[in-house]
Design goal:
single chain; about 500 residues; alpha/beta; Metallo-beta-lactamase, Chain A; Rossmann fold; 2 domains; seven-stranded mixed sheet; seven-stranded parallel sheet; 26 strands
């Protein structure tokens, strides 16, 4: 029989860390951050110390006390022993949202990671473009190591490529069996609010487990989620671990609803349309790309989303209708010295030269290496373009890009907020800040959002169709709403958090 320990995702939304053991084989299902627990202690400017290895996380109960899973450099730095072999044989990643993946950073590099190709790309974007700490997802950068200097005199800190160690990453394909010890496993693609989400079906000699990850039935590809339900039912699982984020919700807003609502709003509007949607939500990108196309506008993406879109463009995903880089515009912000447009000056030999007359080669140092490929495309634009021809564009502007409005100075615009409603104190504070920016520039706000999670009736119908013997509801604040499944002969077991 399998043994299942829940180290996260219990009585909360996210933070999934589920350890499954059968005989001599142990696997993790996800290894994510609990935002609710982390936000008790940390904020944007109060962060855990990398100088203390994993100790800050362990002290505050953010990481579980499990021997044999954490990276050697963090352990040995704190005077802790590192086991020779990992305590688990692998980790199955359902998708690349941080509440399922963030704490992979702390794991040792010889724990195999299993994920879809799309999840791999998203984690690569996070590694390549993020300026935050604790982002060693696909590569582990060794810390606290000294290496001999080339001249043989003393030591220097290990850094750069010499400090990088590739993690053991395995890209899984839909419904192709793979083996990890006692487990035969299939990845089952599901629809969610970012590319590459996967459920998993795991079989041993004694048990079959269906793990949903996060899923929905009202996105752009509901058929792939329905296929998972059929395949899970066919596998006759005795155990199901299901998300229940929106178990208390009765209805859905679809991507098509947003598309139609946005088109109606802006079809006759002549000013700048500004929209914020989650950067990794490619279905929402497609929605506003279609809105732009149907209203005679061009969707404008920031450098980070353009970088991600470019990675996906180099792969053939016939079931997805992502735009190409040439189909959108790329926004080049003022960074560093701000030598974009013609409003800034720089001094050469005592003479102040307008930025419009400065050779582009001098601008590159303001941008990171990964950004530079997008700076001089034919479809790269800046604040001047949005200022002079606002009726031509839909400008994606996230929370941290609101300062771009100071350069753009929109005289007539609207703001579409296509993200979830605030549900905690920090989000409420950020929401008020957004409102202050919009009020300053006289931008009316329109809310339109579709969730990445199934509604309550859909979740219950899914579980009834799969018909497991035992159900563990996770990723939910309303586990009691699963209890009605016991009338269908399903034993609903509330998971307990293991410390």
């Amino acid at each position: 029989m399998v043994n299942i320990d829940f180290y996260g995702g219990v009585n909360e939304i996210g933070g999934n860390k589920i350890l499954i053991n059968h005989n001599t084989t142990s696997l993790f299902l996800d290894f994510g951050m609990s935002f609710s627990q982390s936000n008790k202690y940390f904020s944007e400017f109060l962060q855990p110390r990398k100088a203390n290895g994993i100790q800050d996380f362990l002290e505050l109960g953010l990481l579980p006390q499990i021997k044999g899973i954490y990276r050697e450099d963090y352990l040995r730095h704190c005077g802790l022993n590192s086991q020779e072999k990992p305590a688990v044989e692998g980790l199955l990643l359902s998708h690349a949202h941080m509440d399922h993946s963030a704490y992979i950073h702390h794991l040792r590099e010889d724990i195999p990671l299993y994920m879809t190709e799309e999840s791999y790309f998203i984690l690569k974007v996070l590694e390549d473009t993020s300026a935050v700490s604790f982002i060693d997802m696909l590569k582990l950068k060794k810390n606290f190591h000294f290496t001999p200097k080339k001249n043989g005199e003393g030591y220097k800190r290990l850094g750069g490529k010499d400090a990088m160690v590739e993690r053991d990453v395995h890209v899984v394909k839909p419904y192709e069996n793979f083996q990890i010890g006692d487990f035969t496993i299939k990845s089952a693609p599901v629809d969610h609010s970012l590319p590459g989400a996967s459920a998993y079906i795991l079989e041993t000699a004694d048990d079959t487990i269906a793990y949903t990850g996060d899923l929905r039935f009202h996105g752009r590809r509901p058929e792939i989620t329905r296929k998972f339900v059929r395949e899970a039912k066919k596998s006759n699982p005795n155990i199901m671990i299901s998300e229940g984020t929106r178990i208390d919700s009765q209805s859905n807003t679809t991507e098509e609803d947003i598309e139609n609502k946005a088109k109606t709003l802006i079809s006759d509007f002549k000013g700048l349309v500004i929209v914020n949607y989650p950067i990794r939500d490619f279905d929402r990108l497609v929605t506003f790309y279609k809105v732009a196309k149907d209203t005679g506008r061009t969707l404008v993406l920031n450098l980070k989303q353009a970088y991600m879109l470019n990675l996906f463009e180099n792969k053939d995903y016939p079931d997805k209708d992502y735009p190409k880089i040439d189909d959108i515009a790329v926004y080049k912000p003022r960074k560093g010295w701000g030598l974009v447009g013609n409003d800034s000056y720089a001094c050469f030999d005592g003479e102040w030269i307008c930025s419009s007359e400065i050779d582009h080669s001098y601008l590159k140092s303001d941008y990171k290496t990964w950004e530079r490929d997008f700076l001089n495309l034919d479809n790269t634009i800046n604040y001047r373009d949005l200022q002079e021809e606002p009726e031509k564009y839909i400008f994606r502007c996230d929370f941290f890009e609101l300062k771009e409005l100071i350069d753009i100075k929109p005289e007539n615009g609207i703001y579409i907020r296509s993200v979830t409603e605030p549900f905690d104190d920090e989000m409420e504070i950020d929401y008020k800040r957004v409102k202050n920016w919009l009020d300053h520039f006289n931008l009316p706000m329109h809310q339109m959002h579709a969730s990445g999670h199934a509604s309550g009736p859909e979740i219950l119908d899914m579980i009834r169709e799969v018909s497991p013997d035992v159900l563990y509801p996770i990723h939910t604040e309303h586990k009691e709403m699963f209890k009605e499944l016991e009338e269908d002969g399903i034993n609903v077991v509330y998971p307990k958090l293991k410390c």
